[in-house]
Amino acid sequence: MSAAAERIEIPAFPDLSRVPRVDEVGIYERAARFRTRSIKKEAKMDALKMVLSMIDLTTLEGQDTPGKVRQLCAKAMRLDTSMEDLPKVAAVCVYPTMVGVAREALGDSGINVASVATGFPSGMTDLDLKLDETRRAVVAGADEIDMVISRGAFLRGEYRRVFDEIVAVKEACGDAHLKVILETGELNTLDNVKRASVLAMYAGADFIKTSTGKIQPAATMEVTLVMLQAIRDFYRETGRMVGMKPAGGISKAKLAVHYLVMLRETLGQAWMTPEWFRFGASSLANDVLMQIAKQRSGAYQSPDYFSKD
Amino acid sequence: MANDEKIMARADSQAGAAGSAGTASKPHRLAVASESERVGVVKTYKLYVGGKFPRTESGRFYKVDDRKGEPLANICRASRKDFREAVVAARAAFSGWQNTSAFLRGQILYRIAEMLEGRKEQFVAELYSTGASRAAAKTEVEEAIDRLVYFAGWCDKYQQVFSSVNPVSSSHFNFSLMEPTGVVTIIAPEKSPLLGLVANLAPAIAGGNTVVVLASESMPTAAVSFAEVLHSSDVPGGVVNLLTGQSEELLEHFASHMDVNALVYCGTDKGQIKQLQTLACDNIKRVILRRQDRWDDDDSRNPYLIADTQEIKTTWHPIGR
Questions:
Q1: Which fold has domain B61-318?
Q2: What is d(CA B75, CA B193) in angstroms, rounded to the nearest whole number?
Q3: Is the pLDDT of residue B89 over 50?
Q4: Cβ separation of A305 and B84 shorter than 8 Å?
Q5: From A304, which residue of chain B is nearest by alpha-carbon distance?
Q6: pLDDT higher than 60, residue B24
Q7: Is the dihedral of CA B31, B34, B37, B43 positive or negative?
Q8: How many domains does chain A fold into?
Q9: How close B259 gets to chain A, by Cα (Å)?
Q10: Which of these, B164, B155, B131, B136, lies nearest to B64 by C-alpha position?
Q11: ipTM of model over 0.90
């Protein structure tokens, strides 16, 4: 990533009137095409492993306990005890109060700790509280911060305020990576999704992320495609790569593989690593494991034989 | 019946009108088929999965001949993926069906019998077309209806018969209950396409299991029509899923699927039985073998058939002393 010097400069506010309109019908047609791709045998196996390596194993519930977070971390480090040569997941994603527990449990396993922040999931707190929360999460050991934007402000047209908030949180992150959650389920139109993506990227986001998982609809292929295209346009304009994280509602391996197809055909090979693409999911990992077990044994699998997380 | 006559009458009058309205004045008017020329509507036999009637995803089919060796119907040749979908549907329906009250399950089974009674003629004709004599077909359908009523009655009674309060020498109240095992796959008998199907299906669903059935390969038409009966009988979608196809191709998956809890095999092929038992080991499925030819005697009309696909749960409840 770029040097610290770049963060000190105040990023330029983008001219949103120059953001082209989204062809909604075209997006839906294009997204539907990806779902018709047939990926089999070795290619499927490789894709499934790639999906595993890109998962942010997530638990974001009011009922989370340190015990549950430790259990999730144990699973992150060893996804299935009966299968060898599986990749590790990319990160474990938790609430700020659980960052310390996750950090300790993951140790030097190479798996990142991601923390949501800034009044997740609604983002309805004051900016100084958001910044404080972010700093605390980073101090506690978070490698990645998943912030939410103020959707209310965005929908009111206060783009500048949203932009400034992201800039401020980015600064509070220090060396931690910043993922900006647009919560597309509340943005109503694909045009808004694109505008919010542009806003977030110009404000310094390392990743843009679709959803909190608390609002329906969460990630859809259409919304993700719009965001991927925004990343492509941003890259062409500025030369800076930005990562993508669809989150929420992706629970089947087949769908995840279709997302990879979409990624490959929109952004290309360079983005096909956990450094630039993540899945935010809790139940996806198990479905992928079931598919891998099916590929290996030939027998269809049952969730009864995979750990609940 | 009355409806049919109305439609025919309308066709007649239209044909008449076309005839008289004139060859000369309106030569391009399309001819309307008269009664004798009417092309019958032939039923497409499809699968029954999750309360819907899909075609096989594979697009394959095989032909079934009637009693004279003439082509009777094209039948879906289900693939392993159809089977996979059927198990997903059955698993999804399981908790709801398991928790349906015993009394309601009985009512629903009785409802199936009512619906089948109403379509008796159709089933007799269907069994006749695939080779049974008229008399045998009639007996088979009636026996199938009665069998459904029989198991409808057992729905809220088998628990009392098979459960027990066990004497133990500690201060516990110890009792054992029957619980459905889960998703049951059934390889229906090749002969007796309706009664054989009902005789194996009814005890499994009476006990709260959900099932995936592979119908008789050579005589599948009655089974598919029976799915229509199920569909109109308040049986929740996914409780019964019916596939047609080649057992040789599908057996392996019926036995190896990890999310299937029990397998009922009707047949005598030693090679197949060995294959099934071997593959079933992986998740320790119950394999229930039913080798009989006849499905109309007490061997297939008793509550032990329900117990075959039940698990016994024993509870130790502490009591003060």
A1: Aldehyde Dehydrogenase; Chain A, domain 1 (3.40.605)
A2: 14
A3: yes
A4: no
A5: B259
A6: no
A7: positive
A8: 1
A9: 4
A10: B131
A11: no
